[in-house]
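Example A, followed by Example B.
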Amino acid sequence: MMKLAKTAAMGAAMMIAAVACAPAMAKPAVSHDGKYVSNEAKSFWSNGEFPKGFKLSIDLKWTANKLEYHAVNTTNPAKPYLNNFEATLDDVAGPLHENARFNEIRIKKLDADTYQVLEQKDGDVIVGQYWRFSPDGKTLVRWGVGKAPDGKSKAFLEWFDRAQ
């Protein structure tokens, strides 16, 4: 009986140590809140058709399990494209409104600076991407594969620099 109690106590101590030392879901050293602006020179699409003059600004606000995302694409200044949503970070699909290509968003936090982001249409993944923030919070890189409105897929890498 005493041996069983010692084994249970040892197991509990190991679990507490593992949880206390697990950095995977740790809070980032630097907040990811703020405005990020696209860096055209460091971005590309695998089909070679990355838009000249690409201009996308993203405002992000993070809480423990939520992202507020507000983006404005002014590559064509006469017709800015807006994309706004709120999503949880628990890999559960949530609604995306006012978007013809997607109606769901799923975000899963992988570590303090990395997220998996899936944009879906009725459960079908249209864009699968990873977002990675630099440890100093000065850059955000999004890379993945997406299906364009014409039905053709392409890989992409989009680089953003922190504006504020």
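Example B, a separate protein, is given below in the same form.
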Amino acid sequence: MAKEPSDLVVCVDNSGYEAALERRKLYALLPDTDAEMRGLLRVVDESGEDYLYPAKNFHKVELPATVRVSDPSSNQD
């Protein structure tokens, strides 16, 4: 069963991962408590696949409630 993204993170350092990550870009973060205990985050990178990267390379992003709409069709523009 595929995991759903839990949060968004922004890449602040792509050193050593230049082909897979872009600095200042948002990425989906997948829940992985075992990885987090080891200082890693499971991130969906440029390949569209999820891989483990050092947590220090990212910062979690908190979106305003108005942006976190669970049903895009309910948007009343």
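On Example B: The chain has a mean pLDDT of 87.
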